[in-house]
Amino acid sequence: MSGVLVIAELVRDVPARLSLELLGLARQIVAQTGGSVSALVFGCDQTASAALIARGADKVFVVDDPRAADYNSDTWTACAAHAADQSAPAVVLSGHTTKGMDLAPRLAFRLNSAAAMGCVSVTWEDGEMRFTRPCYGGSARETVSIRTAPAVATVRSGCYDAAPADAMRRGEIVTLGVDSQASRLRVVERRPEAGDKVRLEDARVVVAGGRGLNGPDGFAVLGELAQVLGGVVGASRVPCDLGWCPHSMQIGLTGKTITPDLYIAVGISGASHHMAGCGGARIIVAINTDPDAAIFRDARFGVIGDFRKVVPALAAEVRKGATDGR
Amino acid sequence: MHIVVCTKLVPDPEAAFSMFTVDEHAKRVIPAPGLRWVMSPFDEQAMEAALRIREKQPDSRITVMTLGPDNARNALKHGLAMGADDGVFLSDTAFQEAGSYITAFLLAAAIRKLRGCDLVLTGRQAADWDAGIVGAGIAETLAVPVISFAKDVQIDGGAVRVERVLDDGTEVVEADLPAVVTVSNELGAARAPTLRETMRAARKPVVVWSGADLGWSASAAEAAGIRCVRERVFLPVKNSRCEILEGASPEEQAASLARRLREARVI
Fold first, then answer.
1. With 70 as the cut, is the pLDDT of residue A249 above it?
2. What is the total count of domains within chain A?
3. How far apart are CA A102 and CA A279, in angstroms?
């Protein structure tokens, strides 16, 4: 068994950034171990397959059935197992998304192997694949090796770079059939949340609020700053659990993992489980009334003060800078 | 309706980062001595989901199950005090340091020994290793459907109907019973045990099964354990070089912050 199989995800018919990062990681792995890179994609047209090849796939398994495009745990697991049988990879990689988190452990059991969930690093050492992942609510890290093949792993976003697109790369496209009848699951209804145009996972600037906002209206204040910065608003777990904002805004161990250039944490204490979702941001700014908040240990810049005064002042300052032509 | 809720006892996940150290040699995380041990919160919410089902279907029976060392019995006590009808304790020195695979096989074996059940509920992941593998593993081992990250769990005739959390909203998925459902924090807070239920808990039946009771052999343990080997456990390095931007007013603080962010070319 050699090479890598990447379970790709599409966002509005285009490969997700995280899927491209996985292809980048897959190329790094095969450069050391040999073997080729395959990708599995569901219900796509030729354009998405071509994009996956341009970004590093040597072979693309296409489940060419529009009904398979939407996630179904049974269908996707069966197709992934089928693609793994055909490509016999050493490693199967998927994104640490709600799809990947659901699929990877099932696939691992189906293939009589093991899964490493939510990895921040995948390396080849002493002839073994090693996977490093946060645990204990982000307080600690563990590195595991998987001795059975194929190893299955989900990888968090922003840990690896996508390879540049190379339109000259050539690859093979293989169509996989799907037995939709085999699914024991019936998707009755989808309830998408009308969110920002830019996905939280893709935003370069994220302004997030926590318990310290003291209520749902604080998010409007953050929204104004996010708007002048061209960013998106997120949240820690507490405001989501309290119903101040939708759960799709949650950043952290059980929410989204984001790696923006700028992360502004407002009224967020900085618990480990939150930092597990945003610790990879290039610059973290903390705005908090409590000078002892743990967030100041992770932040590069801190402001101790009332967000209702500091955040609008920062928004005004950014606007002023923009009109000054800076 | 027979519901089995699989639970785990973990060091209090709400404890501060500083309450944990690491024994790099033993490859273990060592919680501070005074730290409370609690039922993993997602498992507590799985118990809550079971109790909500029983409120609508009073003839339901809830079995709380756990695997672990002697103190893991406290997870059962908590589940029984929340309102479970009986408990199953999987306890054997051979289960020490059981990873996700062994745990899933053993829980599945115990469910088989109970002659199956209609619904298995468990947390989306345990709050210690945060893997999120066991629920899926029980389902794959028992060859029954699994629905993950439940926000709401309803029984509708012979089927379970689950609203589950997605990256960009939710979806409603149905499966015929028996099935496994893993519960996410979106389900809402779990109820606290009442005094009355806590008093009753001590009289509720608990069975204890060893590896031998489950037909578990040393060779099976070795085959499962070798799949995934822990090589290292460590604490991430904190940067602790935060620059606090001072100023006589929020405007001055904001101006100073904006200047730094421009220098760093992030705005």
1. yes
2. 2
3. 24
